[in-house]
User: Which sequence fits this backbone?
């Protein structure tokens, strides 16, 4: 019988990561879209690095940083009573960093495609930046929001290298599906690996398909005027 | 290009900023509203200082109480017409202004529609209504009619004039359409290359080269017909078409769409020796 725990863990990780990513990705994207700060490009590079860096590189650095011997790891250990290496919280933080561009980039381009006059009209009507963001910007970039959320979710599901480096292979704690597949193959259980892989394949296919279908609908609505 | 302006506008004036595109008209509106920051400047409205770069006073966009109608209307696509207006309400402001404006701008039937369902002229009326919700004393209009056809333009000019009088507004309109300037404004500034080159009332500015005349109108040519040796030129003046006879020479350089001044000098008394 196949163990379903890795699926539960994977979905929990993807969901937690996406919620946190949305909360921090939205302000970052807003800032990147509208700030006139000169060194903005540096921040953009930092956000996009996970796209090009091999996951093992990122995982390696995070492993070092999370180690209780070092500042970050020590801080979490002493003040938040949380160990980051080989634990679920560590996986979440690593996933947030790793999937950051998948949330920030769609949101950033969503902000940029909205006409500037919408924001200016709202300011002239006496509305604050925050109210403009909530009532005008966000409701008018639903397609970008959906893309950002679903891509981050799907990308976290598909994570392997970073997860393996930070989390290892601890059942019920850090053994997500992608790691479980690797584990089964290592121990020659091709049948189990096949089932895991098949389910993951179908799941991600359906997620992406629904995003594209919904986005096509958004564009149809937008272009029908 | 440097924009260098110094002007005063009286309360309840209807002022046009007239000039070729790229001369700084829109930028002037943006500076007045606080959307663009000038290097140095001073703006005072009703004894309230909005901008004084020397004293480092710069009222935020939100605090400068004015109405602004954008060239692209800038209606919020996620809200219905009524919601667009309601969004503009200030905290604690009574809601009856919304129905009043929907009525004045003839939008009652459309109030539940989203902006994408409206025609250009309807969108424009919503934009004007929305700009008036906070009951500003100053209304800025950035080429509001440029994308509309003649008939719609004339109708909207009436709407604007109605609002201007009804709400006792001081209105500043950006335009490069002579007939529009004539019809709506009582004062104009000609802006060229970032400075004001002429100011005054529209008739004296546009026709300073002509001498005495009995009557004069500005209109747009809608038709030119050839009748044997003369031409009949149909000119749209306000809502009326006037047919004017023109010679072969006079017709040179005129075509449908040309802006023309229709004027007539007084009949000259004739002096003749009678012995």
Assistant:
């Amino acid at each position: 019988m196949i163990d379903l725990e890795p699926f539960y863990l994977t979905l929990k990780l993807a969901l937690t990561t996406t919620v946190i990513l949305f909360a921090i990705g939205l302000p970052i994207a807003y800032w990147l879209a509208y700030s006139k700060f000169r060194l903005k490009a540096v921040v953009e590079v930092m956000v996009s690095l996970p796209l090009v860096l091999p996951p093992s590189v990122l995982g390696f650095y995070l492993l070092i940083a999370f180690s209780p011997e070092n500042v970050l790891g020590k801080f979490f250990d002493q003040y938040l009573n949380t160990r980051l290496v080989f634990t679920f919280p560590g996986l979440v933080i690593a996933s947030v960093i790793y999937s950051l561009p998948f949330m920030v980039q769609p949101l950033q381009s969503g902000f940029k495609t909205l006409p500037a006059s919408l924001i200016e009209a709202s300011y002239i009507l006496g509305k604050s930046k925050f109210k403009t963001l909530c009532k005008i910007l966000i409701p008018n970039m639903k397609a970008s929001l959906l893309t950002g959320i679903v891509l981050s979710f799907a990308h976290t599901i598909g994570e392997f290298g970073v997860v393996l480096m930070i989390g290892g292979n601890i059942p019920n704690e850090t053994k997500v599906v992608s790691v479980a597949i690797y584990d089964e193959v290592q121990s020659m259980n091709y049948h189990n690996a096949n089932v895991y892989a098949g389910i993951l394949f179908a799941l991600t296919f359906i997620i992406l398909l629904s995003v594209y279908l919904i986005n096509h609908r958004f564009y149809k609505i937008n272009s029908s005027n | 290009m440097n924009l260098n302006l110094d002007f005063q506008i009286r309360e309840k004036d209807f002022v046009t900023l007239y000039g070729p595109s790229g001369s700084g008209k829109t930028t002037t509106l943006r500076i007045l509203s606080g959307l663009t920051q000038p290097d140095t400047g001073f703006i005072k409205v009703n004894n309230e200082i909005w901008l004084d770069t020397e004293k480092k006073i710069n009222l935020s966009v939100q605090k400068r109480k004015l109405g602004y109608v954008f060239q692209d209307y800038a209606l919020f696509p996620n809200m219905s017409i009524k919601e667009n207006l309601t969004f503009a309400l200030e905290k604690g402001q009574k809601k009856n202004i919304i129905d009043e404006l929907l009525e004045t701008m003839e939008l009652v039937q459309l109030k539940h529609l989203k902006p994408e369902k409206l025609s250009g002229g309807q969108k424009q009326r919503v934009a004007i209504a929305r700009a008036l919700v906070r009951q500003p004393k100053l209304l800025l209009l950035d080429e509001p009619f440029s994308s509309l056809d003649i008939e719609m333009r004339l109708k909207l000019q009436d709407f604007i004039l109605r609002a201007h009088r009804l709400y006792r507004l001081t209105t500043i309109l950006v335009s490069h359409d002579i007939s529009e300037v004539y019809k709506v404004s009582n004062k104009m500034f000609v802006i060229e290359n970032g400075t004001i080159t002429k100011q005054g009332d529209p008739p004296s500015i546009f026709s300073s080269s002509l001498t005495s005349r009995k009557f004069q109108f500005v209109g747009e040519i809608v038709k030119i017909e050839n009748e044997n040796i003369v031409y009949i030129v149909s000119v749209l003046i306000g809502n009326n078409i006037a047919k004017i006879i023109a010679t072969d020479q006079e017709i040179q350089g005129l075509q449908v769409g040309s802006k023309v001044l229709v004027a007539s000098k007084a009949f000259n008394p004739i002096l003749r020796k009678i012995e």
In short: The radius of gyration of chain B is 22 Å. The interface with chain A takes residues 33, 35, 61-68, 70-72, 74, 76-78, 87-88, 90, 116-117, 130-131, 133-134 of chain B (CB under 8 Å).
